[in-house]
Every structure is written in C-alpha cells, then in structure tokens.
Amino acid sequence: MEAGDATLEESSFFALVSRMKYIERWALMRSTRPENLSEHSLEVAVIAHALATIANVRYGRSLDAGRAALMGMFHDASEIITGDMPTPVKYANGQIRDAYKDVEANAEQRLLDELPQDLAPAYRQILCPAASDAADGDEAYLRCLVKAADKLSALIKCLDETHAGNAEFRSAQATTQASVDAMAADHPEVADFVEQFLPPFGKTLDELL
C-alpha cells in the first residue's frame, strides 16, 4: 500500500493456522509418539508434491505439483476449529459422515472469514477446493492424489507405531493399507510411491544413509 493509505485491519487467520501444532491426531489410540496436525499436514504436502511430480515425469500428466503441496498443507485446516474426529466415528454411518462434512465446511468458512476480503478468494481455492468451480480432469486428479497422500501419511504413522511394537495400530494399519492399495490400483503414481518410497519407512538412520 502507498503512503497515506488507511491502516490495514488486523487479521487472525495465520495465528489460527499456527495452532495446527496443538491439534493432536489419533485421539482414540495409544501412541508411542504423539502426532499433531502440523506434522501430518507437512507430510501430506510433501507426499502430494511427490505424487504429482511422479505423475508428470513418468505418466505424462501436467499437474501443478506446487498446488498439490499447498492443498496438502491445508487439507485438514478445519480441524483447527473442530479438532480431529477419529475415522471410526466420522464414518460410522452416512448420517454422521454427512453431518461432519457440514461441520467441516462451516469451519473452513469460519477460517476464510478471518482473512482480508482481497486475499480470501486465493485461499478459498486452497482450503475449499470441493466448493470451487467444477474441477477439470487435471484438478480432479490432483484432488485424488492429495487424498492418497493423506492415506499414505496415515499408513506411515501406523507403520511407525507397529515397528515400535505398539499393537494398538494393527487394525488401523490393515484398514489404511487396504485403502492405499485400492488407490494404487487406479493411480500408477501411488503404486510407484508404495513400491519405491514406502519400504524404507521404519528403518533406522544408519540403515537409511
């Protein structure tokens, strides 16, 4: 803004986003190491970027890998307000699932309302991609890859816990593995990640280097 313009109005959006680190995941599970939403979101962003890059390099796609990372970074931003609802509860039946989707949408809108009006449209496309205009083929595919990245991150957490001897995550690992396998069957970049990059998770630093 130029000198003499009105003072910018205070916005709490990024202060709210910074609270991701206070949202604990896997609330119904006994973990050897707690995981917060900030950690999970970064991992999803990294994996989503990788999946989009693999799709472009190996399978002739023209996806925006940077957008995939951004979508992954903010994919659970509504949980800053709602907290993390455990998957068995969220998907217990269609009624609960639909009601929670409404809660998520309201929370996303609440976050957007904290942005200045000139910035809100840019962030709406990241926080609420499903509410944006109808997705073209590439955009729809990108959203699928972000969902796959979310599942892969959850699977990595399950693997970490089971490798640490925590039997609490055995059932979650089997369920999440089945979801990842189903996604890999339809998305070759997911299959590539599972084959090439997933096996080293759980190894020690000495084994990795």
**Mean pLDDT level:** 90
Secondary structure tally, helices: 11
Query: What sort of overall outline do the alpha carbons produce when their principal axes are compared?
Result: globular
Helix proportion: 55-70%
Number of strands: 0
> Helices and strands, in N-to-C order?
HHHHHHHHHHH
Proportion of residues in extended strands: under 5%
Radius of gyration: 19 Å
Sheet with the most strands, sense and barrel status:
none
| Low-confidence sequence ranges | none
Between the first and last Cα atoms, what is the distance in angstroms? 49 Å
| Secondary structural class | mainly alpha
Concise structural overview:
The chain has helices at residues 13-17, 37-59, 65-74, 79-82, 87-90, 94-113, 120-127, 137-163, 170-186, 188-196, 205-208. The protein is mainly alpha-helical.
Folded structure, characterized:
- The chain is mainly alpha-helical.
- The chain has 11 helices and no strands.
- The longest helix is centred in the last third of the chain and has 27 residues, at 137-163.
- The protein is globular.
- α2 packs across α8, α3 packs across α8 and α8 packs antiparallel against α9.
Task: Please tag this protein with its features.
209 residues; mainly alpha; 11 helices; globular
Layout of SSEs?
Elements: H1 13-17, H2 37-59, H3 65-74, H4 79-82, H5 87-90, H6 94-113, H7 120-127, H8 137-163, H9 170-186, H10 188-196, H11 205-208
Helix pairs in contact: 2-3, 2-8, 2-10, 3-8, 8-9, 9-10
